[in-house]
Amino acid sequence: MARYILLRMADAIPTLWLVLTLVFIAMRILPGDPALAALGDAALPEQLAEFRERMGLNVPLWQQYLNFLGGVLTLDFGRSLLSNTPVVTLIAQNLPYTIELTVAAMLMGIIAGIPLGVLAGTNRNRIPDTGVRVFSLIGYAIPDFFLGAVLLITFSLNLGWFPINGAGTDLASRIHHVFLPALTLAFVKAAFLGRLTRTSLLEVLGRDYVRTARAKGARESRVIYRHALRNALLPISTGLGLSLLSTLSGSVAIELVFNRPGIGRLLIDAIAQRDYAVIQGGVLVFAGFVVLINLLMDLVYVVVDPRVRVK
Amino acid sequence: MSLFTEETLRVPAVEPGVFTKARKILFGRAETVFATVIIVVFVLVALLAPWLAPYDPLAQSIIKINRLPSQDNWLGTDQFGRDVLSRLIYGSRNSLLFGFISPVLAALFGTILGVIAGYFGGIADRLISRLIDLLLAFPELLLAILIAAVLGGGFWNIIAVITVAFIPGFARVARAQTLSIKQEPYVEAAIAVGVRTPVIIIRHVIPNIMAPIVALMTLWVASAIRIEASLSFLGIGTRAPNPSWGNIIRDGLNSLFGSPWPIIGAGIAITLVVLSFNLVGDAIRDALDPSTAR
User: Fold this and answer.
1) What interface predicted TM-score (ipTM) does this complex get?
2) B230: chain A residues, CB-CB within 8 Å
3) pTM of the model
4) Which residues of B touch A153 (CB under 8 A)?
């Protein structure tokens, strides 16, 4: 198992390198001149030259590439054009809020979604099943930022139960601040996880060992939770990884709706202000997370399903 | 009993025509009928926008800012005094346009990449597969946000962004299908007889991999609409003042203390359209690929 984990982790290195290279190519080559993009068409030639020098764009492309890779390895992403703050500092300031939101949303989504799926799976084609199906159809269709806006208007603006912006300072106020945004993201998670749990549970419930457990006279709750759900965990654990990824992408819009600090917010503000170095930093953080989460998904897979290790 | 006789009558199994099939898919279940009707209504609204919209969607009015719904403005006005209903009606054009164009383009490019990788194998396959695997690790929305971060907004950029975000999915399916079609006797026969490679690909491979590609295309219309709405909401999609459902919600949030109707109207529109395309997409997938049916 240790061998498999090491191999899998080693495999993440070329992936990471490929991601870095793609980001580099996208940032330098695709949109034409980054200096022009950042400063606008009205910029004077001297301003453009100064910008290129500051961003290290005045050296040959291969040297830029090496500088870029070196910068990433030493966690040096340059400085913000506007505030001159190092991009790493900006990321470090904002990252905890995004992680906090993502973790809270995942927890709420799991707590709601898996029991919903069990409820639907054990009452197949009856009212709870139909209810969960309607819920998940709506969950798939409703845009998270719309749901967030509705919750914000109802519970923060009209009822005054929750703050309308920011992220709070001490623990209690942070939980107070993160609740509604996390609930918004959790709604979509619960729809997805509920559906997934239902499907994988139904598949398992027809198996011999479930029948045996029932024949032995085990209580139904024991059959479901000890025998069936445990075996349904494999697809659910993959689903959790996918869900974590989509929570991360959803957090961008949700941070904007609830006016919270975070990496998504940082990236979107940087795009609006054409802050080249911060855009690059934000893109890299998200891409890095995707690679990391995929790696974790694979590792969880090994732990949950011993059969994978043999391959 | 009547079912039995009906079955026996049909015995020389005639492949049902395209229209019969389409009718069965679109009107087979009650929920799909509902979805089809919603889609038709929204397509008509988008086509007839100039005749249906009571006002010019861009016309501002300083004397009627943030009005609640009234007889003159059914859904009220926004913070620039623009009629919300008219903006929603014109916004449907953007949403549906991106919804249809991007999946088609992505299917085209994705199929080309997938067929090349699957048919030729070797280095091309290794390169394309590695890239596909990498891009598939990203959720489409996140990939779209990251590409849009670099490219910026605007009509063609959004099309490019959503198309690129969808290409890996199509390429993977096309590659897998091509790999299995390549083993079929008729393809081996064509190779043995000496038919030129482009002819084999166009005449034998492509027609036989189209079913799953088309199914995927319809499933992704909904995703494309969602992604366009998200990008426009984030301010990196359809640019103001042009209306799109996403940026109507954005504008609505920017004047939180004004009328909530722009947010409610646009949000319900997106939800209904995405829900409908999801339902129709599921029905088409189930029809084309019975193994995934519920």
Assistant:
1) 0.84
2) 143, 145, 253
3) 0.84
4) 256, 260, 263
